[in-house]
Specification:
Strand order of the largest sheet: 1-2-3-4-5-6-7-8
Helix content: 40-55%
Number of helices: 11
Low-confidence stretches: none
Radius of gyration: 17 Å
CATH topology: TIM Barrel
Mean pLDDT: 97
Number of domains: 1
Strand content: 15-25%
Distance between the termini: 13 Å
Bound molecules: phosphoenolpyruvate
Length: 250
């Protein structure tokens, strides 16, 4: 079964890069990415957003941040706001990545507030959800994901966001969810959103994230509710990232 939703492949560079390395990576991406097909997004560390915005000028690659404040301005040392990200050229912001939730204590309520702030400024939030291995082992995957989605529903326009299902146990571990495991959770997310907004659910882009690489991407993308990928490690290698983008176009 195919859907009319255009696929999106997003690269989360995490806390990696230098001016020189970013320049090389973007040049290689511009040379190797297919001219059309899936939408492409890269999310460099905040200090490099302006550099990468310049490098991407005139290209079809969109720019996103890895985090965004829930506040627009004020006494929030070390934070950056959605209006600032818009001004610097971002169209997207990752929100609630598991590393933010685990290492920096972001709750689902705060993630919802950040999502709301991003939408208000005209950014497309890429909201991450996903269970840990103990939660999956306990059969709690759906309950965990529903709990993470809960504060968003009724608060934000679900038609304006992208959701990334990223099982925590698959992020950076080399262990990928099987296409069937991922599809089951994507279907659950779409049904959950559909219960409050059927039109938003039908159009909702739901990415899979967790050790996606050039070898496993095509099988994941063949699932009816998997609309692309959020890619960490492999997004730092132009050849691998370009292969994932090509896999999304078929
Ligand atoms: C991520 O950081 O969102 C991610 C999915 O990382 P990796 O592809 O390295 O597992």
């Amino acid at each position: 079964m195919t859907s009319s939703r255009r696929k999106l492949v997003a690269g989360n560079w995490k806390m990696n890069g230098t001016f020189a390395a970013n320049g090389e990576l973007v040049a290689a991406l511009l040379a190797q990415l297919p001219r059309d097909g899936a939408s492409v997004l890269v999310c460099p560390p905040a200090p490099y957003l302006q550099q990468v915005a310049g490098l991407l000028t005139g290209s079809r690659i969109a720019l996103g941040a890895q985090n965004v404040s829930e506040f627009d301005s004020g006494a929030y040392t070390g934070e950056w706001s959605a209006p600032m990200l818009r001004e610097i050229g971002c169209s997207h912001a990752i929100v609630g990545h598991s590393e933010r939730r685990t290492l920096f204590g972001e709750t689902s309520e705060r993630v919802a507030a950040k999502t709301e702030a991003a939408l208000k400024a005209g950014l497309i939030p890429v909201v991450c959800v996903g269970e840990t291995w103990p939660e999956r082992s306990a059969g709690a995957t759906e309950a965990v994901v529903a709990g993470q989605l809960g504060p968003l529903m009724g608060r934000v326009n679900m038609a304006g966001i992208v959701i990334a299902y990223e099982p925590v146990w698959a992020i950076g571990t080399g262990k990928t969810a099987t296409p069937a495991e991922a599809q089951a959770v994507h279907d659950f997310i779409r049904r959950k959103v559909g219960a409050v907004d059927a039109a938003a659910a039908a159009g909702l882009t739901i990415l899979y994230g967790g050790s996606v690489n050039a070898g496993n991407a095509a099988a994941l993308f063949s699932c009816p509710d998997i609309d692309g990928a959020l890619v960490g490690g492999a997004s730092l290698k132009a050849q691998d990232f370009a292969a994932i983008v090509r896999a999304a176009a078929t």
